[in-house]
């Protein structure tokens, strides 16, 4: 994490003070843009499929991916055909939109779309143009609903339901807009979304992250080996939550290593560990599979929302006409 990012979650200091003018400029530009869309002076595009946006108002990892996984499974259990679109941050493909298949790598699509695909084996379209992503899914599949992984600030894209994820531990940092703070939009934006859901914590509208058994990075299968100590490696927004989960499993952390979110790993990054065990997140694992050693493991996590979140979401799905008679 850079010094600027660290300053977002510390008391007001020199770095924050120096960046305030840029945050004011960011606020002005984003406010003008929002007004232009609200008065239809900037036009969006239309699509025939309802869109559920799972996003946030701050940068960095807030736990969207586990909720997207849960949401997909919740919708499919109701008999709906569901696709996913993603910006595919960190991926570089020769052409977009890109349909994720077994042969697509994290270098092409980014880490989160590959994680989602390996878990769900569902239609996923990746690329910087969300309109093209949606059009590709609508062309290839007959879908009842599309989940947009991120995109709350992409006002050009229509949306039927907005779910805003908030990290219960870091919340909104110093409460300032970028770059003096972590916010993409002010907290007033929460008043306009359909449902605000906290990742962790004890709020009524929240979900807990539940861990599963450790899996092999090489094979993706559950390991039978008892892991008592390992180096923890992660490239996520909030690594402390991951490391606390490992400790709760009784794993002694030999060291902790934090890389920037969406970091593109290479084998050289792991030479310092020799033949010792490594544990990483599932998002890290999809980027390391091609060069992982036998004693590298990852920790899968799943979101478990409260009954209040599930009931409110079901009500929204019925109100918006996505589900009938649930």
TrEMBL record:
Pathway recorded for this protein: Glycolipid biosynthesis; lipid IV(A) biosynthesis; lipid IV(A) from (3R)-3-hydroxytetradecanoyl-[acyl-carrier-protein] and UDP-N-acetyl-alpha-D-glucosamine: step 6/6
Domain of life: Bacteria
SUPFAM superfamilies listed in its UniProt record: P-loop containing nucleoside triphosphate hydrolases
Any GO MF annotation of the entry: ATP binding
UniProt enzyme class: transferase
Reaction catalysed by this enzyme: a lipid A disaccharide + ATP = a lipid IVA + ADP + H(+)
Swiss-Prot/TrEMBL keywords: ATP-binding, Kinase, Lipid A biosynthesis, Lipid biosynthesis, Lipid metabolism, Membrane, Nucleotide-binding, Transferase, Transmembrane, Transmembrane helix
Binding site for ATP: 58-65
Coiled-coil positions: none
Residues that span the membrane, as ranges: 12-30
Entries under InterPro entries matching the protein: LpxK (IPR003758), P-loop_NTPase (IPR027417)
GO cellular component: plasma membrane
Family that this chain belongs to: Belongs to the LpxK family.
Role summary: Transfers the gamma-phosphate of ATP to the 4'-position of a tetraacyldisaccharide 1-phosphate intermediate (termed DS-1-P) to form tetraacyldisaccharide 1,4'-bis-phosphate (lipid IVA).
UniProt xrefs under HAMAP family: LpxK (MF_00409)
Protein name: Tetraacyldisaccharide 4'-kinase
Native source species: Pseudoalteromonas carrageenovora IAM 12662
